[in-house]
Amino acid sequence: MKENDIEAEKILLSRLKSKDINAFKRFYKEYSDDLLILAYSLLESATLAIRAVDELFERLWMDAKFDYIDPPIHRFLSAELRKNCENRRNGFPI
Questions:
Q1: How far apart are CA 40 and CA 63, in angstroms?
Q2: Fewer Cβ atoms within 10 A, N terminus or C terminus of the chain?
Q3: Concatenated DSSP letters for 22-80?
Q4: What is residue 12's three-state secondary structure?
Q5: What domains are defined for the chain?
Q6: Helix (H, G, I), strand (E, B) or coil at 20
Q7: Which of these, 56, 58, 44, lies nearest to 80 by C-alpha position?
Q8: DSSP 1
């Protein structure tokens, strides 16, 4: 990851912390496609994959958990999604 990519992610996270809805739209658009692919590979269901990704983003927004994220953002999101998908496969609530 390039230094200016890290700086751009830090700016995005700062905007997310202040509940900037446009930043959240950008955040979702930037990361959701790759997360959908990951969720589908873990859950083998398009419906469950979409639900898992949407629930992850919704939880982040509602709980304002952006203080816990350090660049690169995709590492955090992938790890969280993996945990959520594992819980879903095991029948636990997300």
A1: 25
A2: N
A3: HHHHHHHHHHHHHHHHHHHHHH--HHHHHHHHHHHHHHHHHHTGGGG--SSHHHHHHHH
A4: helix
A5: 3-89 (1.10.1740.10)
A6: coil
A7: 56
A8: -
In this structure, what token pair is assigned to residue 33?
Answer: 């496609």
* Confidence at 4, pLDDT banded by 50, 70, 90: confident
Q: Map residue 94 onto helix, strand or coil.
A: coil
Per the CB < 8 A criterion, the answer to whether 81 and 16 are in contact is no
60-78 pLDDT per residue, tens: 999 988 988 999 999 999 9
Which amino acid is it at 18? S
At position 16, the amino acid (one-letter code) is L
- The tokens 């660049």 sit on which residue? 71
Residue-wise pLDDT tens digits, 38-59: 999 999 999 999 999 999 999 9
Residue 85: enclosing H or E segment and its boundaries? helix 73-89
Mean pLDDT of 8-18: 96
Q: Quote the tokens at residue 70.
A: 């350090």
